[in-house]
Amino acid sequence: MGLVYSEPACQSAYDGDVHALYHLLRDDSDQLNVQDRHNGDTPLIAACRHGNLKVIRYLLDNGADVHLTNEKQRTCLHYVSKRGFTLLEYLLIAILMPILLLGYFLMLQKQRKSVSLMKMMLSSNVNIDAVDYKGNTALHHVCQKKSHRLVPLLLERNADTNVQNNDGETPLDIATRLKFKKIIYMLKKTH
C-alpha cells in the first residue's frame, strides 16, 4: 500500500508508470511540475519517495523543477536522502540471510539503488543544502539513516556540514549522538 495522489501525474510517477506519465505530459506539459492538492508533492518528489529510477530520469530529462518543495518544505533530494529499508525488506533480509546469503545480496542491491538515485539527483542543479520544515538538509537525513555510502556523495558536492536543524544539531552532532563512527570520521575529515 502506497500513497494515493489527487494528481494523475504524481500517481503515475509514484507508481513508476513512465508510459502513463508520457501521455499525461504529451497532452498537458504543465503536468511536469504539477503539485498535489493534499501534500504539495510534484511528480518528481513522488518518484523520489518511491525510488523509481526510470521515472526520475525521464522527469529530469524533461526539465522537471528540482527546487520545488512540498508542504513539508522538502525537495526531491530530501526524499532520496530519507529512503531506507522498509520493514518488509528487513524481514526478507533477515529470513533469507542464512539461505545462500540471499538476504545479503538483497541488501547490496538496495544500497546500489540508493547510490544510483543519489547520483542521479546530484547530477541536476538541485540545492544540496535546502532545509525542510525541521531544518534538516539531505546530509542530516543520510546521517540519521546511517547511509555511509551516501554521505561521501553529498560531501563531494560540498554539502554544508555546519547547518543546524531546528534542534540545533549539525549532521556531525547527529552522527555523534547515534555513534556512527564511520560517518563521524567522514564528516570530521571535511573540516
From TrEMBL:
Ranges annotated as spanning the membrane: 87-108
InterPro entries in the cross-refs: Ankyrin_rpt, Ankyrin_rpt-contain_sf, ANR22
Gene3D superfamilies in the cross-refs: Ankyrin repeat-containing domain
Keyword set includes DNA-binding: no
Keywords assigned: ANK repeat, Membrane, Transmembrane, Transmembrane helix
Top-level taxonomic group: Eukaryota
UniProt entry tagged with the keyword Transmembrane helix: yes
Positions of ANK repeats: 39-71, 134-166
Record-given protein name: Ankyrin repeat domain 22
The species this protein was found in: Cyclopterus lumpus
Gene, per the UniProt record: ankrd22
